[in-house]
Amino acid sequence: MIAMRSNAQKHYRSGVFFLAASALAWSSSGVFIRLITTDLMTTLFWRGIVSGTAIFVLFFLLNGRGGWKVVRRMSWPSFWAAFFSTASMISGIGSMYYGSIAASMVILATCPFITAYLAFLTIGEKPNRITLIASLIALSGVAIMLVDKEGTGTMLGLLLAVIMTVTAAALGVIMRHHRNIPMLPAMASSAWLCSMVTFWFAAPLAVNASNMGLIIAFGIVQNAMGLIFYTYGAPRVPAGDASLIISLEVPLTVLWVWLLIGDVPTEATLAGGAVVLAALFGHIWLEMRRQRADPVESGHQLPAIDLDDLAGDVAGKRF
Predict the structure, then answer these.
(1) Which of 6, 26, 112, 218 is the most buried (most CB within 10 A)?
(2) How far is it, in rounded angstroms, from Cα 258 to Cα 60?
């Protein structure tokens, strides 16, 4: 029993690490969007090609020839995960392209509540008291941000931000509920699906060298790394907790754009972001302190991969 509990605690801690790393990678999106001057659809087309290829390369490096068996066994949970991931990609980047980055991030900050609600309705996963309290504190930070009505962007940008948030929540629930199913192929497929959807509205040959370099970095650093870390982290942590940790992306995105691009956020955004950060770090610290673990009695096999497994042979032991 002690060994089982220790193993579950180890999985939870590594899950927190991977999710935080995912949030850090995804938080670079605002900087890339502001630096790339290519139109949205062309950017999304090439970004999907690059990130999908990068994810698949990593997947086959880790799994070898056994990776093809995993791909052939992809079932409806993987297809739904790919669909929601694609929808979140397109709407998320579009919301920041057509609107305010800060406003998009404020709406995204509500994702933990939507995720917890969906998880409770669909898979019966109840958020614990610490998660609920941290979510309420984070919500108060969002309310502070919304006090300032300036720079909210267009209605299209706000609508896309709502779609991004809902589809991201649905993806989180699927990843958690089907944590015994390999999801890296689904994430790679979602990036390529994004390219298929945007191809008809893109101009792939009209990209100059500087923009192509930025798009390649965008695809690898922000999208591929973010999806890979998220795929490893989400199955290890309850859906509500995972969504709350991922919300670290919200203040960090605004921070990077401010520091690197000079897009200064309003005082309300800074104050609200500080509250969101306090809720996130407080939640993580309390959870780690009491060494919270997933119940092993759930009947699902917890992911067998650990940090060291990224450099080793983990064929057939993915999730």
Answers:
(1) 112
(2) 38
Over residues 47-82, the pLDDT tens digits come to 999 999 999 998 888 888 888 888 888 888 899 999
CB 86 within 8 A of CB 194: yes
Strand, helix or coil for residue 317:
coil
At 32, the pLDDT band (50, 70, 90 cuts) reads very high
Residue 209 has pLDDT above 80, yes or no: yes
Q: Is 99 helix (H, G, I), strand (E, B) or coil?
A: strand
Q: CB neighbours of 81 closer than 8 A, spacing ≥ 6?
A: 171, 174, 175, 178, 183, 186, 187, 190
Which residue has better confidence, 41 or 310? 41
| Furthest CA-CA distance within the chain | 60
Specify the residue for token string 């980055």: 101
Backbone angles phi, psi at 153, to 5 degrees: 85, -165
Distance CA 300, CA 178 (A): 9
What are the residues facing 99 on neighbouring strands? 153
Q: Does position 285 have pLDDT exceeding 50, yes or no?
A: yes
Question: What is the SS3 assignment for 153?
Answer: strand
